């Protein structure tokens, strides 16, 4: 119980650090945006073809999102660990003693882990939402599933833009519309490329 209390305390302290909240939101929203575009590209390249294989589409989306989760989670962890370490060094020099093993140092390490973990969830959430039509519909309706998945991707982009607008205190509706229009433009460009190739 005491160990759980200590872990809970570090979590609360990590979340109370001024850099944790903004980094969580920034990384999560950006990764959600990137993941949606990646999955949209997969659908265009593999599901909107004459001989589309539902199993291959599903496997490609899932494995790509898992790879993105591992990649972004790892890169964010390394980047945040470096930044947090530099910050702790600066505080340590100001206090004339190392702070790595203090509550602040432990909270800083926990902050990097929390930010990285939440960031790694974004591609998994994106993949789970967009792959759902392919899992719920039969093989005969793969084109319909692809169309539904594309609509879901555009809606996700709108939601991501809306959240970005809220966080930046700009017009969230306009930001959401812009993101969804970017998604539509990317869909058209990739679809045309697929038609040529």
Short description:
With about 200 residues, the protein is mainly α. It is about 85% helix and about 0% strand.
What is the ordering of alpha helices and beta strands?
HHHHHH
Domain unit count: 1
Shape: elongated
Distance between the terminal alpha carbons, to the nearest Å?
A: 61 Å
**What oligomeric state is this?**
single chain
Class by helix and strand content?
mainly alpha
In percent, how helical is the residue content? over 70%
Tell me the fraction of residues in β-strands, as a range.
under 5%
In words, what does this structure look like?
The longest helix is centred in the middle third of the chain and has 42 residues, at 54-95. With 197 residues, this protein is mainly alpha-helical. It is elongated. The protein has helices at residues 2-16, 20-46, 54-95, 103-136, 142-167, 172-196. Helix 2 runs parallel beside helix 6 (172-196) and helix 3 runs antiparallel to helix 4. It has one domain.
Provide the fold topology.
Blueprint: H1 2-16, H2 20-46, H3 54-95, H4 103-136, H5 142-167, H6 172-196
Helix pairs in contact: 1-4, 2-3, 2-4, 2-5, 2-6, 3-4, 4-5, 5-6
Labels describing this entry:
197 residues; mainly alpha; 86% helix
């Amino acid at each position: 119980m005491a160990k759980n209390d200590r872990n809970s305390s570090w979590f609360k302290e990590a979340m109370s650090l001024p850099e944790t909240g903004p980094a969580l939101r920034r990384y999560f929203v950006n990764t959600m945006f990137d993941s949606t575009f990646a999955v949209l590209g997969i659908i265009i390249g593999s599901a909107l073809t004459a001989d589309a294989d539902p199993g291959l589409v599903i496997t490609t989306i899932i494995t790509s999102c898992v790879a993105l989760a591992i990649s972004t989670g790892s890169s964010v962890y390394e980047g945040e660990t470096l930044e947090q370490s530099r910050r702790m060094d600066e505080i340590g020099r100001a206090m004339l003693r190392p702070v790595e093993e203090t509550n602040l140092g432990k909270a800083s390490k926990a902050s990097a882990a929390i930010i990285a973990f939440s960031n790694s969830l974004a591609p998994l959430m994106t993949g789970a939402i967009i792959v759902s039509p392919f899992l719920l519909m039969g093989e005969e309706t793969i084109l319909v599933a692809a169309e539904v998945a594309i609509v879901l991707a555009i809606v996700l982009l709108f939601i991501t833009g809306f959240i970005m607008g809220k966080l930046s205190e700009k017009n969230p509706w306009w930001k959401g519309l812009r993101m969804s229009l970017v998604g539509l433009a990317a869909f058209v460009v990739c679809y045309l490329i697929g038609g040529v190739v």
